[in-house]
Amino acid sequence: MKAGIQAGDVIATVDDKIVADARDLARKIGGIAPGTTVKLGIIRNGAEKTVSLTLGELPNQREARADAKQQPEHKSSNEPRLGLSLTPGGSEPGVVVAEVDPSGPAADFGFKAGDVILEVGGQTVATPAEVGKALGKARDDGKRSVLMRVKSEQGTRFVAIPLSRA
């Protein structure tokens, strides 16, 4: 955020080396020591831009997993099609994934218990009902997929969920 990177930006290069996918980005960044300044090539709204930033260390994100264990009684049955049981995030922003059906679509996209869904279709969410409403709105708007911003132990990532599977 300090470097000017915004939600929805696509990181295309790290120090002029092309990034193939999210794993490649993680490998490239993970191989650079904290405190090092890197140059990122990003794509925002179709336009290319370069930003420089100094790498920090990943924060400890255990709070997401703790919230899931503290509030299982609030599970939502609103999203059985994704294979997720959701709980409100409480004092933390977002909606906590309490359980993931291993045979459901969400498991195929890497969702795990303790993950926190922060946004669905660009809308911040605070309750399981808001997740369902945002998915329904995307489907009603004729969209074929919806982008979710998800915080996990590995960091924050975007996940595109095809609505045909939701």
What does this structure look like?
This protein is an alpha+beta fold. The chain has 2 domains: 10-54, Roll (Pdz3 Domain); 63-162, Roll (Pdz3 Domain), CATH 2.30.42. The chain has 4 helices and 10 strands. The strands form 2 sheets. Strands 5, 6, 7, 8, 9 and 10 form a 6-stranded antiparallel β-sheet that branches. A 4-stranded antiparallel β-sheet has the order 2-1-3-4, with helices on one face. The chain is globular and about 40 Å long.
List the helices and strands and how they pair.
Blueprint: E1 10-14, E2 17-18, H1 22-30, E3 37-44, E4 47-54, H2 63-70, E5 84-88, E6 95-100, H3 105-108, E7 116-120, E8 123-124, H4 128-140, E9 145-152, E10 155-162
Antiparallel strand pairs: 1-2, 1-3, 3-4, 5-6, 6-7, 7-8, 7-9, 9-10
The number of domains is 2
Quickly count the helices.
4
Largest sheet: 6 strands, antiparallel
Provide the succession of SSEs: EEHEEHEEHEEHEE
CATH C-level class of the largest domain is Mainly Beta
Rg:
17 Å
Question: CATH superfamily name of the largest domain?
Answer: PDZ domain
And the CATH topology of the largest domain? Pdz3 Domain
Average per-residue pLDDT, rounded, comes to 80
Task: Estimate what percentage of residues fall within beta strands.
Answer: 25-35%
Distance between the termini: 31 Å
**Helicity level, as a percent range?**
10-25%
Shape: globular
CATH-level-2 architecture of the largest domain: Roll
Q: What is the number of strand segments?
A: 10
The secondary structure category is alpha+beta
Instruction: Give the low-confidence spans.
Output: 60-80
